Amino acid sequence: MAEYDENNIFAKILKGEIPCDKVYEDDYVLAFNDIAPLKPVHILVIPKGAYVSIDDFGTNASLEETQAFFAAIAKIVEQKGIAETGFRCIANTGADGGQEVPHFHMHILGGAPVGRMVAG
Ligand code: 5GP
Fold it and tell me: 9-110: which CATH architecture?
């Protein structure tokens, strides 16, 4: 598992060094709009803890962090009105997964049909 890079862009957002368009925040989680949205709703949900990837999070996060993370997703999709219409959560991971930012994040995509599960 890769080592956490304290200077990745989402770490800078968490430290307040870079602004974000905040959607949700609690003690464990921050969520904000993706800077380059691919659907009408495109939100990134991140834990406040320093986790590189979903497997790092799944292995090392506390029960409180894990519970808060998924509860936040549920609150956000309800708040955005896409719980009924549907949405997709994506956690790109590592090189083959196409992960660009090495701080675990879940994309929430919705507000329009998201298409096939995997392109190509
Ligand atoms: P990944 O490819 O790592 O799963 O996704 C990274 C996502 O972060 C991309 O969808 C990209 O548009 C988004 N992103 C990159 N830099 C920033 C930023 O500074 N602010 C916000 N809000 N999103 C960003």
Answer: 2-Layer Sandwich (3.30)
Name the pTM for this structure.
Answer: 0.97
**Per-position pLDDT tens, the chain of length 120:** 789 999 999 999 999 999 999 999 999 999 999 999 999 999 999 999 999 999 999 999 999 999 999 999 999 999 999 999 999 999 999 999 999 999 999 999 999 999 998 876
What would the 3-class secondary structure string for the chain be?
Answer: CCCCCCCCHHHHHHCCCCCCCEEEECCCEEEEECCCCCCCEEEEEEECCCCCCHHHHHHHCCHHHHHHHHHHHHHHHHHCCCCCCCEEEECCCHHHHCCCCCCCCEEEEECCCCCCCCCC
Dist. CA 10 → ligand 1 center (Å): 8
Task: Give distance in angstroms: CA of 36 to centre of ligand 1.
Answer: 7
20 Cβ below 6 A of ligand 1: yes
Respond yes or no: is residue 105 known to be catalytic: yes
